[in-house]
Design a protein that fits this description.
This protein is α+β, with helices and mostly antiparallel strands and 104 residues long. 35% of the residues lie in helices and 27% in strands. Strand 3, helix 2 and strand 4 form a beta-alpha-beta unit.
């Protein structure tokens, strides 16, 4: 994986010189999210410090956007793509989904 190919796959807008400087933090902007891409062949340990940095970088870009960590796990033949978001964001997404869908 290259970040560039994942950004293109997502239809996101890549950040110039991501990680360098004060304002172009994160790897890309996608909808209302600032995305940080990480690839690992088998596993990853996510720490509070890692998540804190992703959040800080997001807020340097915009207070109106939410942080997301996109994990790409696996080898070239088989990849699993996961998104890590805050629980409160998941609750908001569910609330929007429920509001816009009629349940019987």
């Amino acid at each position: 994986m290259s970040e560039r190919s994942e950004i293109k796959r997502d239809g996101a807008k890549g950040q110039k010189n991501s990680g360098r400087g004060d304002y172009q933090k994160g790897d890309a902007v996608w909808h209302n999210f600032v995305v940080d891409y990480k690839e690992y062949s088998k596993s990853i340990s996510i720490s509070k410090g890692m998540w804190s940095k992703i959040c800080t970088d997001t807020f340097k870009v915009s207070r109106d956007k939410s942080p997301v960590l996109k994990l790409v796990l696996g080898s070239d033949g088989s990849k699993t793509r996961l998104a890590v978001i805050e629980w409160a964001m998941l609750e908001q997404l569910i609330e929007c989904w429920e509001t816009n869908n009629v349940h019987n």
